[in-house]
Amino acid sequence: MPVYNLPMNIEPTLSQTADLEPEHARLRAKGHVSDIMNEILGPMPLFEFIDHFLPVVPTADDHSHRLPSRDAFKLVPYQAKRAADIYEPLVPLPEPTRSHEAPRLLLQAVQCDRRARSSRIDFGYAELFIDICPDPQRDLFHDPPPDATDRHTHELLSRLADRQKFLYVQDMFGQHVAYVVEVFARQSRHFLFTVAMHGSRVRLLHWDHAGCVVSEAFDIRTDPDILCEFLWRFSQATDSGRGHDTTVEYALPEEEGWFRDGIREYMWTQLNPGEDLEHAVKQHYAPGQLFATNILYDGLSADEGHTRRFIFSRPVVSSRWLAGPGTRGYWAYDVWTKNVVFLKDTWRYSTHEIEGDIVRRLWDIGVRNVPSFVWHGDVSGLDRYPEPPRPLDPMNDTLEKDSRIHRDISTGNIILVREPNNDIRKGYLIDWETSCRVDEHGDAVEPGRVGTWKFTSIRLLEWDWGLGINPRHTFLDDMESMLYVVIYSAFLWQPHDLPRRVLDSCLLMFNFEFKHPGGYIFGGTCKTYNATGRDYTNGVEFDSLALREWLDAMMAFHAPLHSHGDEFRGKWTAAHVDKFWTDFLATHALEPSNRAEHVLDHIDDCDTRSMTRWTVDWSPRHSPSCEPSTATEAMMAVKEPSSKRQRSSSPSAQPARKKRAKAVGYSARSSCVAVLESRSYGQAMANSRV
Question: Is the overall model pTM greater than 0.90, yes or no?
């Protein structure tokens, strides 16, 4: 049976966005629209939509058990002043007669009160939802004329002369997307159906992590059978046919005890003196909400010896954005080894090298600070290195031993683990799926701007797209990203004297972007100001003198000022930076347990934007995992998990109608244990597309 109402991550600093707070609703809706707009295909002819996504099953083909649809929605007005005027005549179902039985479907009217926990939880149990707007003119999409001969040239988005009205309609659609994202976050799903009503006009929508397919619109007063047929087939579909991921199941009663005790014991090893063990356990364990998945080792036959069972509860992070891998990260209990491991559950790119293969190879060739696979040994048995921490070890090792660069150094891709007999957490660089090899000149063999927007280098953000070529990452771009990871972590989680509004302004250094009239997105201006004049970093007084010293020196390596003379000039190299950073950690005492929570006036909604292959051709979505603990730990390449939302725009972005074929980038569901352990979830998502 499908699982419902999955627990959400509860640590505020590990959330990708605020949930459904009213004060952030409009900004969140805008973000969802921006995120999904290039990932929409349509309008798809109605019967093609229904036949493709809800094919007839034997029970659904027997219409003798279906109630008649004639005049089923005759009381629904074409247009109304209130949504209630639409849904009140829609919700009641006629009583079944002896010769007919109602479908197994309950329609319930729910008003989403953002202040009420119960209405939020409703999303955890929703099989589908019908979003009702009383005005037919507020439909974001429009259909081609019936006699259109070339549907490929049709523009899907409505062209409203009133700019403000168009933005309002966009915001309304963004709220619809927010509901979809909430369902995905609270359930384990492959896909989801929704229904959008504008007056009596209806569209059917199919959502998954590749985007959305929109049907043509129809009027339920004149064509009631279309909606009845859709709902009938939906009610007769299997759990997986309604979009549920049936490889996730409820854990057995005895497994909850194993998980609870294992998490409690493991969390105790990760805490500093004085930290609350019960609070730490609650971040990963929701009593009564335990789930399990059986992961078949990639490439092996479905044999009992090739499968591992993992128990998990509350995620460290769950994606709050639709288009992308939809990554969830858990501390999980390995039933086979009885150890706590890190389980990554994600959709992977069909065109990318499998992350598990990459990390396994990096581990085999001796790259340091890369997690081992559970299949290849216990997570707690990771190698230990007695020498002082060397923050660039995984980057240097990967370049030297595999001619590979990471290309997405970010707070979300560094996790920390406290190992036995070690008081300092050790950082591990994860999420290698966007990494690639470099050529003899040190340039990435795969072109395109890749990575998390806020941590991307100035060179890549300011790339001159007019040159007619795509940029290529280098090792120095990754080094610059590491610098921004520490600065960003220091702004948000180190004690300092910046007032709230000034801190909001400082974050513009990471979030700034503007769009060139030619469609190109730039964003390095504020980082350039800081590099040339320290506009954002000089004005802050950190409590940690060691952090201030490190920051001044690293900024000098990266962009020496005139006052520095020749001391740092030409030394922004891997060798110089690695030596300085290593010596610094060996000679300076950094403050432990000094995390400070700085509340922002606005959602830092760019913190999750990332680009997975931003080129002149297309830009699929990406969204990994976690947030750092403190800037001190960030400096040592040891951070708490974070989260990120993809920033993706293409200079040649085509209308939504043309983007779908290229944007279907996710093929198989993957899970990782410690880093990644792949498991296929059946047909590629591309095969579920038209």
Answer: no
